[in-house]
Design brief:
Length: 586
């Protein structure tokens, strides 16, 4: 059977930076060519970055993307890379689509450009637009209806884009095309354990389509999304042949034995699963036999390391891609800010992480000593700015008491952080966890202030698990564990009044997180949450806290999505509404 050497380019694109992305594609094509690849496949929308959101509907952006794709095809030829067949994701435009209700302005399409010999020889738009979870593509794209089959070196190669692979029935079109290989460019965001789901899907579609399948994904952070790569290749029986590492850029080169092109020509206007099959002949001559390379099947990260790496990548790329030099965060000695600091140091290096200790009249000695120990272990910069005199000045003018006085302290801390941010150019990190964000257990314009929230989608119990994992990871490598043990073991407290503990206001986090998983992530009604074994009065109290805190969450900074349903693009609930989730009683 003919052989085909395929390269999958798992890369970190930048939204809207077309020059950077074109150079990224060009550089990987050079490497693929040096490796002897015949076909190189890039992720979905790699030339524009993904997701473009409403930028996709701007005429200037559509025009720039199409022009850059044409320019890139010519450049590949000028650099003697024209014999390489490159499949490149870009923003295209549907022809002959009139504007009207339900049609995105300027008819943009999430598309693939097939480049060869200095030209774009085929184009294909995404058919099934992703419109659930964090996806919103019906708003921004016009769907396509074509399944391209490319003859490359005497073999047939079909193409699908990301969501198209998830739709049942589409494999019938691939099988009908006679393709021996299906390539699937993706912009598939990370969430915990998604790698297992992807592999199962790719195996199933390969068997259904009777073809090998090559899946390539983006890597890197984009606002609240993180892309984990996890590119892979399976054969027509679903056997895993090769797999990349997660969360790093990589060029995966795989040799495939594929059947000869069948050159099927279905009757005009024949559709399979709603798709028209279009053949494009690029090269018909099979390559001469050559010695195959051995491709790696790299192991997956364990569950905790996977989540931790996602948080690191999300923070790193948010800082780098938005042009910040450094980050600043309040360090109370508590577990949340301590974990955020460890993530920041791993993402950026200790010299770019600045911590501020803000002791008040109610701060314990260990809050200061634990923050200092964290700084000693990680090497981050720590300064102390006592807020007691500032609080006293406000109190003299306002005479606040109770919750208002507690919140005043949190807001004074935030004024300090933002002042230093403005003066020195740091990005302020908000250190709240998902359990607190869910229940509104944070002070708006206080500890909720900042430009990015690294653990916004991490429940409190998982915060402790990640902290223990990070220390164990360091121990196993003979390194200093970054997180002081006391920060992990002591009861959590906001330290805004004498002897305050989180459990004064919230149920134990082990119980709270179980209720939140059911109500927020699985979207169960209150009665169904109770049926899982939780106290009815407690369930009603927690769901009421969640519902009332929506206005706070809307003002909370973005943070990386790691769960199945995050606060942000995943969960869109009105602030103003009259529905209350009550238990049904007799």
């Amino acid at each position: 059977m003919p052989q085909l050497r395929v390269a999958l380019a798992q890369v970190n694109a930048r939204v809207g930076d077309f020059d950077h992305n074109a150079e990224l594609v060009l550089s990987r094509c050079r490497v693929a060519h040096e490796a002897g690849a015949h076909l190189v496949v890039f992720p979905e929308m790699v030339l524009t970055g993904y997701p473009l959101e409403d930028l996709a509907m701007r005429a200037s952006v559509v025009a720039a993307s199409r022009a850059k794709a044409e320019e890139l095809a010519r450049t590949l030829d000028v650099e003697d890379l024209g014999d390489l067949v490159a499949v490149v994701g870009f923003l295209d435009q549907a022809e002959g689509v009139a504007e009207g209700p339900g049609i995105p302005k300027n008819a943009p399409q999430n598309a693939l450009a097939v480049m060869h010999g200095g030209e774009i020889v085929a184009r294909q738009a995404k058919v099934h637009l992703w419109n659930y979870g964090v996806g919103d593509e019906i708003r921004t794209f016009v769907p396509g209806d074509i399944l391209n089959v490319l003859e490359v070196n005497g073999t047939d190669v079909a193409m699908l884009i990301c969501e198209d692979l998830w739709r049942d029935g589409i494999a019938s079109a691939v099988r009908a095309s006679g393709a021996g290989l299906l390539v699937v460019p993706n912009g598939s965001p990370y969430e915990a354990n998604k790698d297992d789901v992807r592999l199962d899907l790719c195996r199933r579609r390969a068997v259904e389509g009777d073809c090998a399948l090559a899946y390539v994904n983006l890597v890197g952070g984009q606002d609240e999304l993180v892309f984990d790569g996890d590119s892979l290749v399976v054969d027509a029986e679903g056997t895993l042949l090769a797999r990349t590492a997660q969360f790093v850029e990589e060029l995966l080169v795989v040799d495939l034995d594929l059947p000869a092109a069948r050159r099927l020509m279905p009757p005009a206007d024949t559709r399979f699963a709603g798709l028209r099959i279009v053949r494009t002949v690029i090269t018909t001559e099979p390559v001469a036999p050559y010695e195959s390379v051995t491709s790696p099947v790299l192991p997956r990260l364990d569950d905790l390391e996977e989540i931790y790496r996602a948080l690191v990548v999300g923070l790193r790329d948010y800082v780098e891609k938005n042009g910040f030099r450094s980050v600043l965060l309040g360090l109370s000695g508590g577990i949340d800010s301590t974990l955020c600091a460890a993530i920041a140091v791993d993402a950026l290096g200790a010299d770019r992480v600045f911590g501020v200790s803000n002791p008040s009249a109610y701060s314990t000695e260990h809050s200061r000593s634990d923050a200092a120990e964290l700084a000693r272990r990680t090497g981050l910069d720590l300064r102390t700015v006592a807020i007691a005199p500032m609080v006293d000045a406000f109190q003299e003018a306002l005479g606040l008491s109770g919750l208002a006085e507690e919140n005043l302290q949190a807001r004074v801390r935030a004024v300090v952080w933002m002042g230093l941010s403005n003066q020195e150019g740091h990005l302020v990190l908000a250190c709240g966890n998902k359990s607190e964000v869910a229940t509104g257990y944070s002070t708006i314009y206080g500890d909720a202030v900042g430009g990015y929230a690294p653990i916004k989608d991490v429940r409190k119990t998982l915060v402790w698990e990640l902290a223990r994992w990070r220390n164990a990871y360091a121990d196993a490598r003979g390194e200093t564990p970054p997180i002081p043990e006391n920060a992990i073991s002591k009861p959590p407290s906001a330290e805004l009044r004498p002897g305050q503990l989180d459990t004064d206001s919230l149920p134990p986090y082990e119980v709270l997180d179980g209720i939140l998983d059911a109500y927020v992530e699985r979207d169960l009604p209150a009665a169904a949450v109770v049926a899982e074994g939780y106290d009815p009065e407690l369930v009603e109290r927690v769901v009421t806290l969640v519902d009332r805190a929506e206005y706070k969450r809307r003002q909370y900074p973005p943070g990386p999505k790691v769960t199945r349903r995050n606060f942000g693009r995943d969960r869109r609930v009105p602030i103003t509404h009259g529905w209350r989730e009550h238990l049904v009683t007799d």
